[in-house]
Amino acid sequence: MKRLIALTLPIALIGIAWGIEIVDPLFFGGTLNFPVTPGGPWSGIFTAPFSHADWGHLIGNTLYFLPLSYLVLLNGLSHYVAVWGCVIFFKLFVLLFWHRGGHGMSGVVYGLVGYLLVIGIAECRPLSLALTVFAFVTYAHFVPTLLPWVSPPGVSWIGHFLGFTGGVVAALGMFREEHKST
């Protein structure tokens, strides 16, 4: 059962975003948007990952989201849920303190990258180290875009930075939790 959930969960999550992108122009004229915005509704921290600016935004996020999700799921569903939970928690900082909002799955994508870059170093297990090396070789080009002067105009670098931070915190938290009993 856990394997089935692990296989279908990322597809179901990105499927929600695709469903919104399909329904939006048909029924809402392209105005359906669920960003996390400063002082906005709290629901934005949960809905923002499923809201995208356009098809290019959604396709780009999908191409990174699915493989990264499956790489994190190799360490277990609890690790995947921890990344999502930490990313959502850190989105609170955008809601409470930042002057601009954001939306899209890229905050979660950066969280998955942050997790993968740290978990192998923390755990020093062969699978985790392999995941970290693979993530570094494949996705290290994401790291410079965490800086505001490198991130393209109009892109929420803070959303990416906080997502990445959430992934790092999730990796360290899962490492600590799993090694409490040893």
Overview of this structure, please?
The protein starts with a helix and ends with a helix. 69% of the residues lie in helices and 0% in strands. The chain has 182 residues and is mainly alpha-helical. Helix 4 packs across helix 7. It is built from 7 helices and no strands. The model has no long low-confidence stretch (mean pLDDT 88). The longest helix is centred in the N-terminal third of the chain and has 27 residues.
Number of strands: 0
- The value of Rg in angstroms is 16 Å
Cα distance spanning the termini? 27 Å
Structural class: mainly alpha
Oligomer: single chain
Helix share, percent: 55-70%
Poorly predicted runs are none
| Shape assignment | globular
Strand content: under 5%
- Strand-and-helix sequence, N→C? HHHHHHH
**Averaged pLDDT:** 88
Profile the largest sheet: none
Helical run tally = 7
Give a nutshell description of this structure.
The protein is an all-alpha fold and 182 residues long.
Task: Please supply descriptive tags for the structure shown above.
about 180 residues; mainly alpha; about 70% helix; single chain; about 0% strand
